[in-house]
Design brief:
Bound molecules: ligand C2R
CATH topology of the largest domain: Rossmann fold
Largest sheet: 5 strands, parallel
Helix content: 40-55%
CATH class of the largest domain: Alpha Beta
Strand content: 5-15%
Structural class: alpha/beta
Strand order of the largest sheet: 2-1-3-4-5
Number of strands: 5
CATH architecture of the largest domain: 3-Layer(aba) Sandwich
Number of helices: 7
Radius of gyration: 20 Å
Length: 185
């Protein structure tokens, strides 16, 4: 086969299929800025993910199709971000047995409390884990997903330990800055 031919490129290890372990789904593209926090953490830990927009309210059939396909796609965890009357994480949880982590997105009207209450009070039998409201929630949702995946992945556990060391170093650095500003030393 000629070097660089189409079939050659297809077989290249560089094109090897990425394992997408986490499905990130959001109710609207307007949630993207918040959900980029999730993306950032998963990238930092080298976790393969997929991202999609579907709405239980606006596109129920599409949302159903998404939820029914998650296991076949190989996802291990779903992170679902939604604002307002947030049905999406619960809807996902009702159609799959994968763990679902919800991220209540902050909206202008009720500041995210509406979405938090929608997600946090699921009926018994269909759990949704809620990491927190807004960007911090989106970040912690990803870290919780990493911790779940690390249960069977010692390299990931090591990365989490290093991450915690960096967090502690940052606190020490901030303490230094505060002491310098307040006490001058
Ligand atoms: P638009 O900005 O598109 O009007 O969406 C979205 O997550 C978003 O935060 C406003 C908000 O509506 C939310 N939304 C849901 C669902 N679908 C859209 N909570 C759902 O199915 O739960």
């Amino acid at each position: 086969m000629a070097k660089g031919s189409k079939r050659d490129r297809k077989a290249s290890p560089l094109r090897a299929k990425v394992t997408r372990r986490v499905g990130i789904v959001m109710g609207s593209s307007s949630d993207m800025e918040t959900m980029m926090e999730t993306v950032g953490v998963l990238k930092e830990f080298g976790i393969g993910f997929d991202v999609d927009v579907v709405s239980a309210h606006r596109s129920p059939l599409l949302a159903q199709r998404y939820a029914r396909a998650v296991q076949k796609k190989g996802y291990e965890i779903i992170i679902a971000g939604a604002g307002g009357a947030a049905a999406l994480p619960g809807f996902m949880a009702s159609l799959t047995t994968l763990p679902v982590i919800g991220v209540p997105v902050v909206d202008n009207a009720l500041g995210g409390e509406d979405a938090l209450h929608s997600m946090v009070q699921m009926p018994g039998g269909v759990p949704v884990a809620v990491a927190g409201v807004g960007k911090v929630g989106a970040k912690n949702a990803a870290l919780l997903a990493v911790e779940i995946l690390a249960l069977r992945d010692s390299a990931l556990t090591e990365k989490l330990c290093q991450y915690r060391v960096r967090l502690a170093e940052e606190v020490k650095q901030r303490a230094k800055e505060v002491r310098k500003r307040v006490l001058g030393r």
